[in-house]
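Hey all, quick one. A colleague (J.T.) asked me to put the flavin-adenine dinucleotide job into the tracker so the inputs and the structure tokens live in one place instead of scattered across chat threads. No bug as far as I know, just bookkeeping. Sequence used:
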Amino acid sequence: MQNFEYIAPNSAIAAAQALSPKQGLTAVLAGGTDLLSLMKERVETPTRVVSLRNIAALRGVTKQGGGLRIGAMATVQDLLDSKAAAGYASLLQAARGITAPQVRAMGTVAGDLLQRPRCWYYRNGYGLLAMHDGKALVPSGENRYHAILGNKGPAYFVNASSLAPALISLGAQVTVAGPEGERSMALADLFQIPSSASERENTLEPNEIVTEITVPSASGWKTGTYEVRQRQLLDWPLVTASVALRMRGNRVSDARVVLGHVAPIPWRSSEAETALNGQAANESSGEAAGKAAVSAATPLSQNSAKVQLATIAVKRAVAMAG
Amino acid sequence: MATKYDWPAAEDRSLIGKRHNRVDGPAKARGAAKYSYDRNLDGMLFAKLVTSTVPHGRIVGIDTSRAEKAPGYKGHVNILNVGDEVQWAGAEILAICADTEEHVRDAAAAVTVLYESMPHWVKDEDVEKAGTANRVQPAKDDTKGPDLEEAWKSADATVEGYYGLAVITHCCLEPHGQVVDWTGDDITVYASTQAVARIPGDLAKGLSRDENIGTVAPDSVHVITPYMGGGFGSKFNIDTWGIACAKLSKMTGKPVKLMLDRDEELMVAGGRPSDFGNIKIGAKKDGTLVAYESETWSTGGIAGRGSPPVPYVYNNEERLAQKARHLNVSTNIGPARAWRAPNHPQAAVLTMCPMEDLAAKLDMNPVDFFKKNADLTARPEVYRYEIDKCAEMIGWSDKWHKRGDSGSGPVKRGLGMSLHTWGGRPHDSTCEVRIQPDGGVSVNMASQDLGVGTYTTLSVIAAETLGLQIPDITVNIGSSKLPISGASGGSTTVGGTTASTRRATVNALDELKAVVAEALEADAADLVAKDGKVFSKTDSSKSLSWAEACRKLGNRTITGQGKQPDRNGGKLNDSGVGGVQMADVSVDVETGIVSINKIAAVQDVGLVICLEQCESQVYGSLIQGVAWALYEESIYDQTTGKMLNPDMEFYKLPGAGDIGELEVHMVQNKYDDRGVIGIGEPPAISPGAAISNAVANAIGVRVPTLPLTPDKVLAALADA
Ligand SMILES: Cc1cc2nc3c(=O)[nH]c(=O)nc-3n(C[C@H](O)[C@H](O)[C@H](O)COP(=O)(O)OP(=O)(O)OC[C@H]3O[C@@H](n4cnc5c(N)ncnc54)[C@H](O)[C@@H]3O)c2cc1C
Ligand code: SF4
């Protein structure tokens, strides 16, 4: 780990002001379950680390209006323990999928959303776009876990957050604070597919922090998350899907389908949503939605199995919701 | 011929063969047990390797100038030099040390090594491509048994298939390494090793090659390893890092710790060769196997490796026509090391999987098929018994179905089986047993407990022999200053160490009996040590408690010596065991995910000393087997030549929730007369083949290669 200066201010604005507007110079520390390993591997080498631990306003999972407010520093375990979140089945299912108690106790919700990709080229020091001697390594390399959608390049990694698909399908908003103040946006807009090495996989300015996530009421919605997991032990899923279905009678009037681990961003599938709208939520509509979700998939040399896994994840998420 | 050293008859055994807790368990649970990694000596420095970042190249420059100015830097030694060739990424180039762990990481990162790169190759499965890259060494044909052409003609059914398994690593939880304290002429080494007695010579030789150091006597080296965190065949030598660590200690005059990082551990300190092959196998209508033909290839790194012993277990050279051809693929990956039962797990996959495929083609129940052909094995009656026992444990007759679970729903269930064999002959061992006037008893030898139960088994032997209890015995092992005993590898330890301990203890007891006989005015030949007493079996009034008996020694300590081998020392051990394992799995055919319901294992090992430790070896093997059957694989990138998963995230291992139910049966009271035989390797062989067979039974098609990952399961289903 490279030496760094550590500060822990007690307001969000002060934290943002302590951050550099230049990418990579400073880093935000929440629970550290991801950042510290990146720093140990020297994938991240910030000269200043700004911890959010002293900012009381960033904590807590509470009811707000008819909905839910999740402080950026609330841990995954806080979310699971909170009464306020009880009505958000798909979100809790996703949180429960993070099986390691250690990670749930330390890892924060904002940290989960902003965790860096697990791409092994990135983690081995070849950069977010996995380049070597000017050549992209992923397309002809070991890409069994890489993207099947949104993978036209130069980014091939997948977004690894399990909570993001659930939160986006629930219509979550995110609030971020910069040195000059706050702004809010749809959570989906926090993510982007980088188009060059100077961009990241999220739209935060280097000196902005996430302060809270708000989720509208889920009443009237049926929700479900299905994760395809190879093993029980501490691991990320191979593919995950979260669905939220607003029902009119026994028909779906409004469907939201968001997949994880299939693209460089949490992947909202309008094709799957169209397939569900107007249908009953059952096995056959779930299957149709699953197929629709991957209709535009362009698997790489080794990851065609993920197309099938995505289909099944959507089908089973619909079943969980129904 | 019976001797006084023979194991007590079954009815006289009060400890041997029973269930005993691990004597070192409490120390480990409390954290009181100090592993090499736990040694932190006063003033100790921390060392780290600088390793090759290219898979193949010549070193053209090593610049340590920035590192030497790094805070806390204390010194470095080169392992390779300018002009040397590196053959794999992760190869050790130099070792550097500093005052803290953090400083040494910074210093190591400040070293620049320049290479002139050379062509590399890291892929093994596609043998044609490897051939094009000039990486395949000439084939060798090995033909045995009856005429092959004739045998194929006589076959009513044949199966031709492709099978294989990937390179995996040892993944020791305590990585390789040591702390070396070189003070004056004394070199103390706290090494994580499977070979306490071998390291002094190995280190002395390595150091003596350095002219700045000159000759080092093995006797100046003291290796101390009371506890060890896993080796599996990868920790027999001092290795480059051990020699470098000693040199750094000499150079700085301080103790130095150099333990490998996780990525180094996975890249260079362990590796089990892969194996892939096209197998053809044939049988008559009644199930009689007639022929087995294989073309296999594998890699064990740049030097390649030996061929797998196929056909495996079913290999009678008079009755089964056999032809094997093996190709060596030379790759720029970390070199292979012996991995629990070298070559056998691979051979089991390459034999037992085609056999189950053939049984399916013959429409035979594998249990019948494997039993029918038991005469082709070296121990037909053992295997027949074990197959039946194992089938009962897994519920084979109720649960087995023909290929392809016909039940509805995406989750299919299936059963599969595999057989294995191993030698496990005893290694050489010398033991000294001491009986003290205060009644204390110690067993002393330069053996080691890799976590397998050596402390416990030796306590059992001495206690049984002296009529005492396990806590009455002190076992001193893990020091090279003690009487020499073999390295722990190849399942040789339990046979060697229990025999030398038995003989030493009997000899020590004879001396005690002579003293007691005099005191009690009894005949020494009439004396028995039992239930904490030494008494005359002809006159019950002549009896002393153990403490009283020992007090008669005055101020003398008895030392009994025992050796293995010892021609006059009775038949205490043997080699050659059989085992059978069966797996019950579920496969989600929509996701390709395999999960284990249960694995049953039946194992003979001659005379069981400690039932619980013996079973533990099997449990561990099954867990390790689930790992390489379903998850483990070293993944290399051809463009960069790097291992992409030298970590615990993508180098996947199972957790408690992934291993299913495990049931182990040790065969006891059947082959006890053979004496003690090793247990470390045999149960580690079959899990992969048994699990692969169970998956084939569940889904109706063979997933050709291990690990049985979802993508491969789905591909096999799609091809069907
Ligand atoms: C063994 C293991 C298994 C895991 N399995 C799963 C899984 O199944 N599903 C899953 O979704 N995740 C999984 N994770 C990831 C885990 O959920 C995340 O590591 C964790 O949530 C990150 O939270 P943190 O507070 O520790 O973040 P940190 O490590 O502190 O930060 C992570 C990143 O987010 C940035 N960041 C954090 N908070 C803010 C903020 N408020 N504003 C701006 N930037 C911020 C940091 O700068 C850093 O780049 C797993 C992790 C481990 C170690
Ligand atoms: S291996 Fe387990 S116990 Fe050890 S640090 Fe990791 S989570 Fe904790």
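Adding what we noticed when we looked at it: The interface with chain B takes residues 1-3, 42, 99, 118, 120-121, 123-124, 126, 132, 135, 137, 140-142, 144-145, 228-235, 238, 302-306, 308-309, 312 of chain A (CB under 8 Å). Residues A 102 surround iron/sulfur cluster (ligand 2) (CB under 6 Å).
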